[in-house]
Amino acid sequence: MSHGVFLSFEGIDGAGKSTHIEALASAFRAAGRTVVLTREPGGTPLAEKLRALALNDPMDALTEALLMFAARRDHLLQVIEPALARGEVVLCDRFTDATFAYQGGGRGFDTQVLATLERWVQSVDALPAGALRQPHLTAWFDLDPAVAAQRLAGARVPDKFESQPQAFFARVAAGYAARARADAGRFLRIDADQPREAVWRDLLAGVRGRGFLP
Ligand code: TYD
């Protein structure tokens, strides 16, 4: 049986990760793997309800962080852990790095508290005590917030985060950069300020280079 593979996809709103996640799912399927395509916040009926609240209702940063981690806990236990135990490939549109970037960086919330919640939520039965479930690889679509703002302007009705000012996204971007520095081996930085085909080429090369795809 194949080993389970857990990949997450991150970046500020407008960085353009979504189409590439679908394409990567096709590439894994073509290689004979079973793929679970999922997202955070969300991925289970309960977590999707929490997503609707977190993305639309005003609330303080701690409440927001708790909702993100509550959704994550349900998603991990109901979807991610079972899929990994079956040896499947989990492609997750955002995971905990987004909480450090948006709630920690964007909203300025205490990252020590986030790290505590991360330890509680990502301790799972399949791992030895003290180990945390983390993605094996995180594709980080890195884009200048000014370019992202241009891309988002005029696109669909923005949610609570998408309607934030550019300064918010500068802090989110800094939050991602800090997470990437702290765990460099896990991060695959993709320059998202390129034509779509070039971004796809870099993503595929990175995922192959780390040995996740033949
Ligand atoms: P996004 O992933 O961009 O989905 P869509 O393409 O449907 O808009 O939207 C999720 C939003 O939630 C995004 O603005 C980032 C935010 N978010 C957080 O603030 N914290 C988190 O922990 C996660 C997972 C997402």
Characterize this entry briefly.
The protein has eight helices and five strands. With 214 residues, the chain is of the alpha/beta class.
Q: What's the topology here?
A:
Layout (H helix, E strand, L loop, with lengths): L4 E6 L7 H13 L4 E5 L5 H12 L4 H25 L3 E5 L2 H11 L4 H11 L15 E6 L2 H8 L13 H17 L4 E5 L4 H14 L5
This protein binds thymidine-5'-diphosphate.
Thymidine-5'-diphosphate binds next to helix 4.
Give keywords.
five-stranded parallel β-sheet; binds thymidine-5'-diphosphate; alpha/beta; single chain; Rossmann fold; 214 residues; 52% helix; 5 strands
How does this model look, in words?
The protein has one domain: 3-Layer(aba) Sandwich (Rossmann fold), CATH 3.40.50.300. It is built from eight helices and five strands; from the N terminus they run E-H-E-H-H-E-H-H-E-H-H-E-H. The chain has helices at about 20-30, 45-55, 60-85, 95-105, 110-120, 145-150, 165-180, 195-210, and strands spanning about 5-10, 35-40, 90-95, 135-140, 185-190. A five-stranded parallel β-sheet has the order 2-3-1-4-5, sandwiched between helices. Helix 2 packs antiparallel against helix 3 (about 60-85). The longest helix has 25 residues, at about 60-85. It starts with a strand and ends in a 5-residue tail after the last helix. The model has no long low-confidence stretch (mean pLDDT about 95). The structure holds thymidine-5'-diphosphate. Thymidine-5'-diphosphate binds next to helix 4.
